Amino acid sequence: MEDCKKRTWAEIDLSAIEDNVRAMTAKLPAGCRFLGVVKADAYGHGAVPVTKRLEKCGCGYLAVACIDEAEELRKAGTELPILILGATAAEYAEALSNLDATQALGDLATARAYDKSRNKTGKKLKVHIKLETGMGRLGFDVKNRDVSNAVEAVQLPNLQPEGVFTHFAVSDEPSREGCEADTRRQFKAFMDATSEIERRANIKFDIRHCTNSGAMINYPETYLDMVRPGIALYGLYPAKEQGGIALRPAMSLRSRIAAVTDHAAGDSIGYGCTFTAKRPSRFAVIPVGYADGLHRALSNKLEFLIHGKRCPQVGRICMDMCMVDVTGAPDVKAGDVATIFGADGKETISVNELAEKAGTISYELLCAVSPRVPRVYVG
User: Across the 379 residues of the chain, what is the mean pLDDT of every consecutive 10-residue run?
Assistant: First the structure.
C-alpha cells in the first residue's frame, strides 16, 4: 500500500459504501430490491472491489453501461444479475446470453434483431424495457401513451422481458421551478404505460424501476420493485436536498509534496504567468495535475489541505503537477501529504466544492480520476 502512496493516490473507503447502502435500504419497503450502479468503473472507485463489497451487504442487482463492463465483473466472479443500461448491437446477443447479462431494450428494430439472433442459439435474452418519458435519450417513447412498439417487443418469442424502467431528468432538484411537476409527470407516464403494456401483452413485469439518486432522496413513492441509486452509493448527494439519508463520501484524493520552493515578491508561477507573488513566498510543488484528473479549469480557484490547513493553489495546473502556497504553513516539507478532496484532521474539502468551482458536477470529477492514480482500499 505504501508503494501506492509515493506520488498521488485515491483512498476508497469501502465501509462508507456499505454504510450508504444501509442508509438507503433502511427506507425501502419490504421486497424492494437494491441495484448498485457500478458503471464507469464504479464512478472511478473501482468496479470489482466495489462489487465485491456490494455482494456482501445485500445488493440484489448491478448496473453497468456496456457489455465490456459486464464482462469484467463476470471474469471477477460476480454472480449478481447485471443490467446493461447502454445500447448493445444485436450481433452481441449471444455474448449477452453467455454472460447471463440483462440488456436494456428501447426500440423495436433492435428487439427484432435480438429475437432473430436468439433463433440461432435457442436461448432467450433477458431484457428490461426502457421507456422514454421525458429524458430525451433511449427508450420507447410513451409520452403520448402509444405503447404499440413496446407491446410487440415484449411478445417476441426469443426475448424474456423481466423488467421495465425509465430515467428521471430532474428528480434531484424538486425545489427548482417546474422540476417537481416534471418528475411527477414522468412517473405517471411510466406507470400508465407500464400498465397498458402489461394489459395488452398479457404479461406482468417482475421488476419496475425508476428511482435514481435524486428520486431516492426526494420521491419515495417511486421506489416500486427496485431502486438504482448511482452517485448516492458513493456518498454524494446529487443536489442540496438530503432527504434525511446520511451518506459518507467514499473517495479521498491525496498526493505527496515533491518539493518546497522559495520565491521573491514579483516572481511569476507556472505556465502563462497567471499568478505573481505579492510577497516573499513558499510554494509546495505537488505531483498531481490534469493527467491525474485535476481539471485545469480549477487553476487558481481551489485549496489543498496540508497539515489540516487550507492552502491556496496558485498558477496554472500542469499535466503532472501544480503549485500550492504554503507561506502560512512554515513547517511544510517535501514528503508531506496534501489532500485534494477528503478530510485532513478537522477540516474537509468536498468534491462538490471543487465541482462548483470548476463549473461541473461531482460525478465528472470522480470519473476523471485517471487510471494512473492507484486506488488504495480501506474500511
Answer: 79 98 97 98 98 95 98 97 97 92 97 86 90 95 92 97 97 87 96 97 98 96 98 95 93 98 94 94 97 97 97 98 94 96 97 96 97 96
Cα–Cα distance for residue pair 259/350, rounded to 1 Å:
25
**131 touches 140 (CB < 8 A):** yes
For residue 59, what is its C-alpha cell? 445488493
Between vectors from CA 145 to CA 213 and to CA 203, what angle results, nearest 5°?
80
**Terminal Cα-to-Cα distance of the chain (whole angstroms):** 14
pTM: 0.94
| Catalytic residue numbers, as ranges | 39, 271
Q: Identify whether the C-beta of residue 284 lies closer than 8 Å to the C-beta of residue 262.
A: no
Q: Is 213 left (phi over 0), alpha (psi -120 to 50) or beta?
A: alpha
DSSP state of 88: -
Closest alpha carbon to 165 in 212, 234, 199:
212
Report whether 277 contacts 265 (CB < 8 A).
yes
